Amino acid sequence: MKVEQISIFIENKSGRLAEVTQVLGEAGVNIRALSLADTSDFGILRLIVDKTDLAKSTLKERGFTVNKTEVIAVEVPDRPLGLAGILQVLDRSQVNVEYMYAFVERCGENAVIIFRFDNTENAIRVLTENGIKVLKGDQVYSM
Amino acid sequence: MIWNDEFETLPREAIEALQLKRLKQTLEKVYATVPFYRESFRKAGVTPEMVKSLDDLRRFPFALKQDMRDNYPYGLFAVPLEQIVRIHASSGTTGKPTVVGYTRRDIDMWSELMARSFAAAGAWRGDVIHNAYGYGLFTGGLGAHYGAEKLGASVIPMSGGNTKKQIMIMQDFGSTVLTCTPSYSLYLAEAAAEEGVNIRDLKLRIGIFGAEPWTEEIRGEIEEKLNIKAIDIYGLSEILGPGVAIECWEAQKGLHIWEDHFIPEIINPETGQVLPDGELGELVITTITKEGIPMIRYRTRDITRIMAEPCVCGRTHRRLQRMSGRTDDMLIIRGVNVFPSQIESVLINIEGVEPHYQLVVDREENLDTLEVQVEVNEQTFSDEIKVLQDLSRRIAREIKDLLGITCKVRLVEPKTITRSEGKAKRVIDHRKDK
């Protein structure tokens, strides 16, 4: 039920983001979803890619600090209140969202949102008990 | 092991008697041969004949690095050039280099003191000494080299740089003792890991580190990362080079200064007044056996204190506490005295934080600013912004708690802070350009 995400530490200086995408592209890694969180000094680039381990080792070789974390991908009905409904479920069960971002591809009629929770297992249980579909890693990497 | 039992364990009275005899000889010699000393003694109203006890030394004027520059290159030599067999010089990054010359006897004495130092550090015949101090004008490389040969160890004259080769040689030649700057030893460990070599698994057992101030925390880091015993050595080219003082393997606490060759004093750097044993201040050294360039009351700019307590190793020579900084490295930030080593100890105590750091000092609207750059590694990195911000805040808070100054902590990418193969450059002070 979990999806592997890599995150990369990027100093706020010109060209660093371009370099990450270039390095990944040359290694034949395709980016499936991404989010960039930034402060005035640094940013954290979070990526879902088709080849996580290759992406991680390639970036490490090029001197980047890279971590792997587990996130989950949730199918969200693509209509008004679709996301709101899911967030209400999470809120009622007191599941805290650390951060979230949208996936590039749709899954049939639904949008896909990536969530990072402080307690991933608990979040998966709450979501599935409420009939919300959580995608498997393999489904996501090959979408 | 003690290299020279007779001199290293002399009773205190005998050391002091020897010092007084040699001091008188040295003062007479420089008074007769070096115009600079004759002039400065005259100005201070002192003559060598006035010296009746060791305490009389404090009536003599100090010699400064500037005096060496003013007499560049050979003005302080006490013997004609035909008796000088070796010339070294400091790097001269802040002006003309300071030039020092050694007679044949000076080189022999230096080798003897370095052999003593190696032995005090726990090295002996049969050790393979991997000498990664730079060979050349810098005294570190050749000073350690001659001492290692005198000891009878097998010395590998690596010099600095060429880090990949250093690691290969350490592996293949079975180096047991490493001599270099403390910051370079950490760089070697890091570079070895990148080559897939665990430096902890090599035969290294002792590291002898000097040429830059380092902290007890960095010692812990080095000992852990390299799986060795890390020994602090002290020296400076103006006095001799490496081997002026060293920690003993037994205590690893304070550096025995070879008192049959040097007289150490601690002064208040502002007033020049001599401080009693145990008080922190600037180290002043007088050489009492050197022929080429004897130095009378040379202000080293290094900050330490004299530890007069007896040592477990049996050596009777007093110890200098690990140098806590240099008066010329001391930063004054918003009126507060700051040594890079203080910030270093804060950083090293935070788990996962890299020992590589840099301080950037600037002035904005007449207010000093301090930025502490710290590298982010896999251990400290997180995919959550708040974790990294907490880390920055924690570092800033601990620096504030220790020094009372507010700083900005900037997290930077790994390996962006320059690694040094010699002395690490920790401070960039932009105020000097303004």
TrEMBL record, chain A:
InterPro entries: ACT-like_dom_sf, ACT_dom, ACT_dom_pair
Domain ACT: 5-79
Organism: Desulfuromonas versatilis
Ranges annotated as spanning the membrane: none
Pfam families: ACT_8
CDD domains, per database record: ACT_Bt0572_1, ACT_Bt0572_2
Domain of life: Bacteria
Record protein name field: Amino acid-binding protein
TrEMBL record, chain B:
UniProt pathway annotation: Aromatic compound metabolism; phenylacetate degradation
Enzyme Commission no: 6.2.1.30
GO function terms (MF aspect): ligase activity
Record key words, sorted: Ligase, Nucleotide-binding
Entry annotated with the keyword Ligase: yes
UniProt similarity note: Belongs to the phenylacetyl-CoA ligase family.
Job description of the protein: Catalyzes the activation of phenylacetic acid (PA) to phenylacetyl-CoA (PA-CoA).
Protein name as annotated: Phenylacetate-coenzyme A ligase
Organism: Desulfuromonas versatilis
Gene transcribed to yield this protein: paaK-2
